[in-house]
Amino acid sequence: MMDARDTTGTAGLMSVAVARSHESRFPKRFAVALRIFAFSVLALAALFAGGFGWFASTVSHMTTPANPARADAIIVLTGGQSRLDAAMDLLASGKGGRLLISGVHPSASRRQLQAATGGDKALFSCCVDIDRAALDTIGNAEESAKWVESHAYGTVILVTNNYHMPRSLLEMGRLLHGAKLEPYPVVNTNLGNGGWLTKPEALRVLLTEYSKYVLALARGIVPVRQNAGDIALAEASMVKGEKPMARIIP
Predict the structure, then answer these.
(1) What is the pLDDT of residues 140-161, one digit of tens each?
(2) Least buried of 15, 71, 156, 234, by fewest C-beta within 10 Å?
(3) Which of 73, 172, 69, 70 is nearest to 128 (CA)?
(4) CATH number for the domain including 145?
């Protein structure tokens, strides 16, 4: 017959063994969780880096069309003088019947814009519309969609800088369902042949714009409206020496 003291001692030993077993399993679980976390971080970092390489390569190979096909209208997103000049040249050459300048600062008058672009007064007066409501690229898309829909345009030339074009097409494409967008990238800095790797300022602008592009993609899954206070000056650094007549679009 087993003594009561033996039973108590056995139970105590079993409790200690179970406790030690739990204690030994905790570090193992923590180590596994840590490895999974580290692997996830590395995978995301590799995905981000790979995506950035694709983005930078795509942007660096964009060129300004020499003779784009005629469209119903032209939209230019403000952020640099070269964009406005390119859009006015397209309008003057008959590549579009009407031009929307989207994202103009409220303090900039029509006369100031016309003087800054050096465009023909009669052409500017008859065929140029100004959007002062848009504060960012999302706002550009929203206001442009209203404009395109109100005129029932079928084809639209979109003018903006090459590094800003992917995100602009993404945001515009979400709202301009009935119109075809024809990109007209304005190239101020030659980034071909990996030139962006040797130019720290260009690398910084591309990385900033790519981060915004990723966030724009994420908005398709979890819609989040950017605040007006988030407007950045990344694009201004890409076009040094230019004097923008309007808001800098993030």
Answers:
(1) 999 999 999 999 999 999 999 9
(2) 15
(3) 73
(4) 3.40.50
